[in-house]
């Protein structure tokens, strides 16, 4: 049967959603998946299912703090992936093969039971994705998932909009989680100002980036901005009047510590001292980089130290180049860092750095925030540090991209079939070589993009990774970079190469069986 069933407008099936909630809170992946398949076969709207699943997991995907000190040792406390996966399940529907348009949502629901209460998972009190990630034994009957930050009512404050936004961001900086959440809910009630409020939410996430990587394990990796974007896009998809659970799932975490603003402070000082504080004027520039300028900036970011990166950005801005166009080149540099990543366990900094650049591109394209120019320096510094981290970590490095034997004689269809099999067999070097062969032959890009999106969705058990795969494809479709094909090579490298958990194809196979797709 097909997965493109007619959407029903019958009343919401409360019994089925109660059953879905029961199975998710029981951490029952199989049971939750079966309930979802039933809802999909009924033709329930995807946005309805997303709304209900966010409602179910929102109370249980927060943590008290993103760091612990255990006997004097710093321990990282991971970020939620459920909301991020919910967001990406919507745009991926149009990028994957039509018969698999509901697979991204199925991967999300498959994951959610394992993503609840990361804090107690990391303490070894409950099973899930993070106990699997760190091989933590759970030697007790798991408790119910814990609500670390209870939901709140709006708190309306007086003052002009800038004063109220600054008050909220000050509360975030101080780590006053519940008060900042209440104030934000009050800000959202100011409907005429809602767009500026949402822009400041995204901004608050984007300025929170760690200031070092090598030999660190506790960092933000840009996750606050990813969560803010997911909150905004899901709220807009569902309608803000029906999106309180989305706000609850996303907003409190912006104030959860630790928070790192030193890289953003650097961007502030560079713009003020070296560019005379001309944010608005420079943001109006839109001239693209020449191929030589792009290659120069990529080399500086990937091979040189941070002072050279700052100097290069300042020179390009003074030469009239557009900040958004410079970001296109930073994304190429970030894709190169992914291509130079070797061992599956080494992708974290490379992939999160790229998603930060993707999120910043979305921010530029969505809002006209007055401080967005400064974030260009944050993005370039993030990727420069990621490149240094990768260069100083074993099993990474430059690799020659060569066509696999016989690849150049294959038809477009044969190349794509072999590429998909290679990605699913987790052979990244070969996957990059096949992608490069397809691109060099000048074949139609659209089938290649669809294949890369589909392959990213088939590999499950942490659907944050299907989001990461999509970021590269999303930017490929909108970039002005002359070396834009590097984003597609990096997509193949990442999907085939990143760390997998359990049987990464299990969820896909169950979905295909449920909808009689014969593993297509």
The percentage helix is: 55-70%
Overall pLDDT, averaged?
A: 95
Shape: globular
Please state how the strands of the largest beta sheet are arranged side by side.
Answer: 1-2
Structural class of the helices, strands and pairings? Answer: mainly alpha
Distance between the termini: 12 Å
- What string, H for helix and E for strand, traces the elements in order? HHHEEHHHHHHHHHHHHHHHHHHHHHH
- Poorly predicted runs: none
How is the biggest beta sheet arranged? 2 strands, antiparallel
Number of strands: 2
Strand content: under 5%
Tally of separate helices: 25
Report Rg. 22 Å
What is this structure's SSE topology?
Blueprint: H1 14-25, H2 29-41, H3 46-57, E1 67-70, E2 73-76, H4 82-89, H5 103-115, H6 118-122, H7 129-133, H8 161-174, H9 177-188, H10 194-206, H11 223-238, H12 244-250, H13 262-274, H14 279-283, H15 291-303, H16 306-318, H17 323-339, H18 347-366, H19 372-391, H20 412-424, H21 428-440, H22 445-458, H23 464-476, H24 485-497, H25 506-514
Task: Identify the notable features of this structure and list them briefly.
globular, 25 helices, 2 strands, mainly alpha, two-stranded antiparallel ribbon, 520 residues
Describe the protein in words.
The protein is mainly alpha-helical. It contains 25 helices and two strands. Strands 1-2 form a two-stranded antiparallel ribbon. Helix 13 (262-274) packs across helix 19 (372-391). The longest helix has 20 residues, at 347-366. It is globular and about 60 Å long. The mean pLDDT is 95.
């Amino acid at each position: 049967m097909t997965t493109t069933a007619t959407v029903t407008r019958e009343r919401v099936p409360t019994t089925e959603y109660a059953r879905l909630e029961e199975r998710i809170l029981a951490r029952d992946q199989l049971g939750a998946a079966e309930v979802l398949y039933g809802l999909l076969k009924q033709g329930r709207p995807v946005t309805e299912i997303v709304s209900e699943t966010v409602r179910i997991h929102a109370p249980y995907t927060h943590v008290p703090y993103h760091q612990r000190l255990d006997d004097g040792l710093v321990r990282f406390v991971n970020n939620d992936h459920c909301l991020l996966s919910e967001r990406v399940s919507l745009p991926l529907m149009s990028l994957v093969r039509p018969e698999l348009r509901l697979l991204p949502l199925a991967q999300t629901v498959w994951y959610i039971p394992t993503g609840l209460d990361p804090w107690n998972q990391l303490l070894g009190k409950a099973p899930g994705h993070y106990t699997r990630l760190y091989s933590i034994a759970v030697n007790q009957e798991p408790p119910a998932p814990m609500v670390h930050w209870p939901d709140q009512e709006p708190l309306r404050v007086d003052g002009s909009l800038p004063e109220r936004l600054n008050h909220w961001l000050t509360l975030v900086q101080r780590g006053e989680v519940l008060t900042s959440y209440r104030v934000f809910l009050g800000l959202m009630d100011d409907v005429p100002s809602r767009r500026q409020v949402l822009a400041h939410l995204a901004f608050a996430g984007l300025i929170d980036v760690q200031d070092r990587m090598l030999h660190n394990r506790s960092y933000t990796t840009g996750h606050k901005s990813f969560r803010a974007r997911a909150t905004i896009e899901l709220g807009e998809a569902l309608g803000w009047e029906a999106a309180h659970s989305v706000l609850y799932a996303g907003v409190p975490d912006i104030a959860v510590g630790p928070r790192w603003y030193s890289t953003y402070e650097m961007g502030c000082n560079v713009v003020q001292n070296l560019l005379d504080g001309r944010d608005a004027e420079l943001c109006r520039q839109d001239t693209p980089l020449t191929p030589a300028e792009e290659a120069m900036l990529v080399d500086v970011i990937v091979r040189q130290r941070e002072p050279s990166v700052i100097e290069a950005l300042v020179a390009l801005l003074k030469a009239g180049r557009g900040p958004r166009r410079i970001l296109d080149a930073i994304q190429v540099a970030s894709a190169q860092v992914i291509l130079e990543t070797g061992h599956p366990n080494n992708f974290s900094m490379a992939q999160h750095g790229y998603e930060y650049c993707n999120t910043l591109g979305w921010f530029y394209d969505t809002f006209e925030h007055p401080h967005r120019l400064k974030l260009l320096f944050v993005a370039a510094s993030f990727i420069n540090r990621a490149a240094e981290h990768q260069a100083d970590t074993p099993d990474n490095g430059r690799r020659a991209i060569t066509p696999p034997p016989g690849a150049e004689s294959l038809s477009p269809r044969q190349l794509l079939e072999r590429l998909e099999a290679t990605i699913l067999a987790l052979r990244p070097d070969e996957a990059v070589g096949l992608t490069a062969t397809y691109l060099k032959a000048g074949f139609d890009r659209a089938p290649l993009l669809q294949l890369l999106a589909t392959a990213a969705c088939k590999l499950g058990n942490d659907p944050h990774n299907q989001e990461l795969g999509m970021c590269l494809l999303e930017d490929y479709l909108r970039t002005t970079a002359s070396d834009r094909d590097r984003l597609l090579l990096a997509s193949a490298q990442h999907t085939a190469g990143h760390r997998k958990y359990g049987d990464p194809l299990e969820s896909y196979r169950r979905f295909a069986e449920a909808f009689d797709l014969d593993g297509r």
